[in-house]
Structure formats: C-alpha cells, structure tokens
Amino acid sequence: MEWLTQCISCKSEVYLLGDGRVKCTKCHKKISLQKINKISTLIQCFIEDESALSASKRLQISYVSVQKYYDTFRLLCAQICEREYEQLRDLQCEYEEYFYLENSKSFEREAVFDAHNFLTFDYADHIYTLLLPSLHQYKTQMLEDNIQGAYIEEFIKFKRLSRIIKVSKYLNNIVHFWEYFEKFILKYKGVNDEKFAYFLKEAEFKYNHSKEKAKDLLKEEYFKGL
C-alpha cells in the first residue's frame, strides 16, 4: 500500500527497520507497522460509520480504547474542517441558521432551551458549520421570571420553522447537509452537549469528502502528530 512505502507525514521514502518499524529517510520519524495497521483499520471503521462497540468486538480491541480513538478522530476532523475553512473564507457563500433538537424532546415545552443552534455556510459546494451559543443558559432566568409564554411561543415558532425546512421543495447544498446530518446523528441515540460540536464537525467532514479522500486526510492528520 502507498502509505507503507511513503512517510505519512512528509511523503518521503521510508525503509523497514529490523524491529518491525518503518523510518522516514527525511524527517526520521519511526512508527511500527503494527500500529500503522491498527490505526488505519480503525480510521476505516470510523469513516464507514461502524460503531465503536461493533469495531471493538470485531477487531477484539477494548471498547474504551476504540472510543478514545474515535474521539481523537473527531477532534482531527474538526481541525481539518477549520483549516479548509481558512482556505475558503474569502469566497462568496450562502448561509442559513439551523436548529436541531433530538426527537425524544420534540414535544417538551421547554425543549427550545436544549436545541442546538448552528449556522451552515456553503462555499462553492463545500459546507462549513459554526455552532452558536446554547439557549440553555437563559432557561433558569426565564422560568424564574415567570415568562412561560415567551419560551412556549419561541418553541412553537421553532417547530414550525423546522417543519418547513424538512418539507421544502427548494433543495440546495445546505438543505442536503441538514438532511444528511439528521440521519447521521440519529444512530448515536443522543449526544452529550459538550461533545455535540465534535459530532457536528464529523458530519461536516464526512459530507464534504468521499470516503477515500476522508480516509487519506484523516490518516495524514493523525500520523503527522506522532
């Protein structure tokens, strides 16, 4: 495979050491073939959307270990997305605001405070997302001020806008991403608020790139950090 004959960090020639590691002729980085194979296999699982539990059972690796690798991959996806944005930010773009709320909370009166609000930008068919501050910080104050009507009215407005977005016949790349994201996030059956941004960036990364391109980018990003 190409990534066994070239340094993943600098693309220079590598050679095999007696201890089973490969060493780059230019940057002199060393890494074991066993680790390369393990990481590459896990990246393949991640890009194919195989769950951490399924991958751990199939590969006979501890679930905790696979989950940690997946968390690292999501962080790297975010880094790649931000770097790509820096290259595109001066281009003209379209953008629209989006609210996401888990299905299990869609009929709760106060659920508007748990919604994730993010901007979606389209730079020449390349999606970029920006997570906005949560409304949850205002929940206690609004309830204490006894202004239920305000947040109930806002929630009704949210549900109405959400429904229009889903049934709209005006399809564009932003709407296609929203549809992709809603299917993507469902399989996790709830995401911790603190980690939501990383799952959003994972979806953005996978949406913007073919599986082969995504695997190559993630491998390069991972191994250059070793």
Concise description?
With 226 residues, this protein is an alpha+beta fold. 53% of the residues lie in helices and 14% in strands. It has 2 domains: 1-90 and 210-226, no CATH class; 91-190, no CATH class.
Explain what this protein looks like in three dimensions.
The protein has 226 residues and is α+β, with helices and mostly antiparallel strands. It folds into 2 domains: 1-90 and 210-226, no CATH class; 91-190, no CATH class. 53% of the residues lie in helices and 14% in strands. It is built from 9 helices and 6 strands, in the order αβββαααβββααααα. It has a 3-stranded antiparallel β-sheet with strand order 1-2-3. The chain starts with a helix and ends with a helix.
Secondary-structure blueprint:
Elements: H1 2-5, E1 14-16, E2 21-24, E3 30-32, H2 33-47, H3 52-59, H4 63-88, E4 94-100, E5 116-123, E6 126-131, H5 139-144, H6 148-167, H7 173-186, H8 196-208, H9 211-223
Antiparallel strand pairs: 1-2, 2-3, 4-5, 5-6
Helix pairs in contact: 2-4, 2-9, 3-4, 4-8, 4-9, 7-8
Number of folding domains? 2
| Subunit arrangement of the protein | single chain
For the CA atoms, what is the radius of gyration?
Answer: 21 Å
The helix fraction, in percent, is 40-55%
Shape: globular
Number of strands: 6
The major beta sheet can be summarized as: 3 strands, antiparallel
